[in-house]
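User: Write out your own:

AI:
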Amino acid sequence: CSNTSAPESKPASVPRVPGSVFAVRDTSLQATFEASGVAAPLRRATLGTKLMGTVLEVYVKEGDAVHTGQPLVRIDARDLTAKQARAAASIADAEAIHQDAVTQAGRIRALYADSAATRAQLDAAETGLSRADAGLRASRAAAEELRAVSSYAVVRAPFAGVVTRRFVDRGAFAAPGAPVVSVQD
């Protein structure tokens, strides 16, 4: 592009590499066919929640790839947190009642063995212990149920796939059984 002439460079020598030489030809394959059909996912899931509450966070948008267990949507579950505190207090109360019933039953058994207590007193102490034991089991079961229900506050991907539809946005109200996100693999 300029008027000044550059010194001509000599081409570099190409090193020889040992090996075989093959001729390559351009060819076209005529083996084509037409087919019609519908592409469908192997798995699809429309996810919802068992809770009723406000959507606090939506972590995905349509087209996002997700992995198994990834959080997709979080729903407000503050009322469950309060119920869990109440369940913990109920367990503590049931444990105290149970411990008192164990102590009383032990005392009455010893008195009954010494013929200082009646059979009716022993039966009453044993019944009180059984009731206290049942109350403790019921309190623990209620707490376990709350833990299980609390897990519905976060909707997670059941398998790796792609988010194909998002039904809610932040601030929306989620109802039990209503769809929040669809995922396909």
User: Anything to note?
Assistant: The chain is about 35% helix and 20% strand.
